Amino acid sequence: MKLYCLSSDASKPCFVLSFKELLIMLDCGLSAHSVLNFLPLPPVPSTRLASLPNYTPPHHNDPLLEGELKECCGRVFVDSIPEFCPPLDKVVDFSQLDVILISNYTCMLALPFITEETGFKGQVYATEPTLQIGRFYLEELSEWVSASGEDSGAAKRWKEAVHVLPPPLADAVRPRAWRRLLAPQHIARALSRVRVVGYDERVDIYGALDATAVSSGFCLGSANWVLRSAHEKVAYVSGSSTLTTHPRPINQAALRGADLLILAALTQTPAHNPDHMLGDLCVHATVTLRGGGSVLCPVYPSGVLYDLLECLSAHLEGAGLAHVPLYVVSPVADSSLAYSNILAEWVSATKQARVYVPEEPFPHAALVRSSRLRHARALHDDALSDFRQPCVLFCGHPSLRFGAAVHMVELWASNPLHAIIFTEPDFPHTEALAPFQPIAMKAFHCPIDTSLNYSQANKLVRELRPRELALPDQYAPPAPASSSAPPPRETSRPHISADVPTLVVRRGAALRAGTRRVAARATLSGSLAARVAARELRAGVRGAPLRASLSLRDSRLELHSPPPGAPGAAPAPPPRLQCAPPDVDALERELVRAGATDARVERGADGCILHLPRHDTLVHVDRLATHVFCEGGADVRQALRRALHACVPHL
Amino acid sequence: MPDMKITPLGAGQDVGRSCILLSMGGKNIMLDCGMHMGYNDERRFPDFSYIVPEGPITSQIDCVIISHFHLDHCGALPYMSEMIGYTGPIYMTHPTKAIAPILLEDMRKVVVERKGESNFFTSQMIKDCIKKVTAVTLHQSVMVDNELEIKAYYAGHVLGAAMFWIRVGSQSVVYTGDYNMTPDRHLGAAWIDKCRPDLLITESTYATTIRDSKRCRERDFLKKVHECVEKGGKVLIPVFALGRAQELCILLETYWERMNLKYPVYFALGLTEKANNYYKMFITWTNQKIRKTFVQRNMFDFKHIKPFDKSYIDNPGAMVVFATPGMLHAGLSLNIFKKWAPYEQNMVIMPGFCVQGTVGHKILNGAKKIEFENRQVVEVKMAVEYMSFSAHADAKGIMQLIQYCEPKNVLLVHGEALKMEFLKEKIEKEFKISCFMPANGETCTINTPTKIPIDVSLRLLKAEAVRYNALPPDPKRRRVVNGILCVRDNRLSLLDIDEMCDEIGINRHIIRFTSTVRLEDPGPAVKTAEKLKNLLSEKLEGWTITISDGNISVESVLIKVEGEDDSTKNIYVSWTNQDEDLGSYILGLLQSMVQ
């Protein structure tokens, strides 16, 4: 078993496991941190952004670099269509992948980069909500990133000059590998490859093993994967949550006792408790609205959004602000809101109980009916013709580099009454806001990341008792400093500390993991089993020689009664297990019976020698072996064999 | 162990009161727990005393599986769980769990309140019963206990209908419930993978029918309805609240829209809105088309179809009314029927199967006069039309399912004996597998091959693969392994000889033979060895022959050449007891060379 790591972002993981001659990709997360280095793409042209000054690095003379870089408040940005950081493509040949298993929709956005135009021929498995909501995410991204620019003008030159640029551009990791989002038809084709599975459904992977998606409690349809063969078990835990939110709770029992546990996508904001953050958000929103300002929440079109709508609407009602309209603006807002209400089988027990009434599991359908919640495809949509302020507006993208949120920040940045509240944990909010500086509107950071935090993850690992644990290097204990002194307190970061053998993987690494296989599972037919008479060989162990015909179909082994030998030919005798030296006296008697009467025996300390001078033959007998030096003819040897057979004890 | 027993308590050569007992591998499973709509006495429920004459039933049944919400499949469940006292696990899909209690309550009202029967389960009992149900999702593999596993497959038929795959040890069974192999206006077609069960228990309602194309039937239906209302007649369509009703509503709705008709269409009050809400909520269980378009337009929001009020019965003029229940055995549909039947411009369309004993069954068989319990006699002058809209698989569909899942045996239930006979013959002829059709109370025993899990040593397999691959390819050649079967803690493994020795902690005693051949061959010994090797390679084609330091090895037979330059060489040939054949062959070869 071998484990490859293809992603440097532990919250957007991508692993490949080679096991039983299969290559299994676990998640294909798309790291979007790279987009923060780009200038925002406004949905309508912005004079402010257009008039930002060009930046030229000092002491660097490259006319081709002209116009690629702009400066805003001391930060340098690339003026081009934003690029993303897909998983490493040099370590594993994507055309050789057999299976891709996806844990949740936040970890699948690089799928088109893996499956399209790479010769990929395998299967992709995900739960139904993962596929649907993943589709919303990708469609939203592709609408924004492709709608706002023609293909030309891709800035490339700056990548050659990274070393002379100021940070954070100077620290960009492998910018040459960054890529633009693929075209919509590629995305559609990639998604059409996905096969939908349910929780606890055992998916047969080419007969070699079973893969099962089990609930991970993080978001609608989020799953951990359990790979099982007759003797081995691998658990892949990615994006799990032990908190109670809208999805089905985590199924821990299925993950227990794995030979290898791979842990990924823990919380990105371990210092923030999501419950407190949700409370803070409600308070900030109420204060802002009371002051006559509006609230902007840059969010993804699904996930925590549902919880935000539920909590915030209830809180505002309690605060006497029930008249404040809530807007969700996204190209997929209508689908996302409608879709969430038909996923009864994927939500928590309390939400599920509502379906039996029958009522929608989420309250946002009722909010839409009562017109408190409006949704629109875009800001210029007719549905927003009576746009009222103050209001709460949910729109993407959380990076503030594209989507409706760009326009809203441009519009509201100068007004100190308004507030922007960051809830998605994927991007540092100061960096997200950097190209809009200076701003007067209030900015709050209330990251809500329900994934496992480090103490929850440590507890989980202890309870699951894996034989071996694999972690991205970000989660591993910091390497001890070279000197004997312990690292200074302030640099020690939260990490996973488990008392099981731990593999630390970093991007590009390939590590050997798990135990060696010694046996394969087969089935023995009843008729063959009935013919075997096993004898007790030792207390508790019985055995018997077995000759069986082997059939291999769909990678499944079956043992049947052996074929009858060719007519006339005697079937090959079963193998014999001689377990002790022959009794020499008995051997002598046997030889006499066979006509060899001249045997002489010399006994030594650790064995004896039996001499047949007439047949020019010596038999050495010691504790572990009997060696016959036979210079006589074949008949003599056969006679000796028979004699030995008769008196060497065997099982 | 290798036997499985199947006893239908209902639905054996019969339709209605589906209830099949399955026992295999020491587990007893009840498949469906339905009631018979044609009876008013104790015959309407399965005969639970068959399972255990008296005493607790729970210990006799490991689980109950309900395939879908039709009352002939779940109607006796509250009776069994609340009145007989079964407390074990009950499984059904989420939509079934949501909808079944509504239908049960509906039926209870008809039985208790209209017919005034006592000794029937109460509303509270239905609620308590449903609370005990474990809901399953499609394809989820549920471990009922350590040995019993079940898995649901999509069955079409009605919202939430499922087929169940059941496994105990190496034995497996698929029970279809009712299913439908062609997609209709709101549901998809049943699907199952090639799970190769030992037994397929399939319904056979339409065992002899090959239905004409769906489109024709729909056009026929619309034409009849349109003609009737055009002449001012009233059309009664008795339906069950959920299922077929929704499909027909979609059909009429689109037709009314297209033809711009104004005749009123009513749907019996009560269940309509709720029913449609269930369809909205469980839209993932409907077909692809509805699922794709539901965000823009929900197919279950009807513009032309209005709720019905009892006072409309006597309204003059044309109208179309959907009323429950579907077999005209009680309730509103029967009341409307009594009023409208004596007029010949009216029409009743029976869109589904009617069990024996119901008014629906009688009029379909051409009865012109119906007598009711209170001596009331109704003359039937209205047109009676039967349209097979019941979403059951037809003969072709059943054969298709058999082809899909490749069972080793088939057992027919939920159909009429004569028709079953026909299908049974067809299955046995076409698939060359045995087919059974037990009657109610009759036990059918099926033998299944035993399969015992065993761990085979990889070393043994690899050695076999090397041997096999070394031979020229021949698809007919059987692969054979020779090993030692080891039984330890009731676990079987097949080991090679050395592994077995390790396993039982003994040292192996090796018997080895060595013989010498003398050869006159001047020159260094290494040269002689080279020559021998070349010679052997010629003679022993296909064997691996290697040479190192003047030692030749042919597989596991060793050959060593010794002797001074320019003198006679001693060639030692040495082999272990197992390699006697090869060893003596090589020895003979060398000896013949020398001479």
TrEMBL record, chain A:
The keyword Nucleus applies. Coiled coil: none annotated. Residues 473-498 are annotated as: Disordered. Keywords: Cytoplasm, Nucleus. One of its GO terms (biological process) is snRNA 3'-end processing. Residues 475-489 have a biased composition (Pro residues). Gene3D superfamilies: Ribonuclease Z/Hydroxyacylglutathione hydrolase-like. InterPro entries: Beta_Casp, Integrator_9su, IntS9-like_C, RibonucZ/Hydroxyglut_hydro. Residues 305-433 form the Beta-Casp domain. GO terms for cellular component: cytoplasm; integrator complex. It is found in: Cytoplasm; Nucleus. It comes from the Eukaryota. This is Beta-Casp domain-containing protein. It comes from Manduca sexta.
TrEMBL record, chain B:
One of its GO terms (molecular function) is hydrolase activity. This is Integrator complex subunit 11. Signal peptide: none annotated. Its cofactor is Zn(2+). It is found in: Cytoplasm; Nucleus. SUPFAM superfamilies: Metallo-hydrolase/oxidoreductase. GO terms for cellular component: cytoplasm; nucleus. GO terms for biological process: RNA 3'-end processing; snRNA processing. Residues 245-363 form the Beta-Casp domain. Residues 16-210 form the Metallo-beta-lactamase domain. Belongs to the metallo-beta-lactamase superfamily. RNA-metabolizing metallo-beta-lactamase-like family. INTS11 subfamily. Transmembrane segments: none annotated. Keywords: Cytoplasm, Hydrolase, Metal-binding, Nucleus, Zinc.
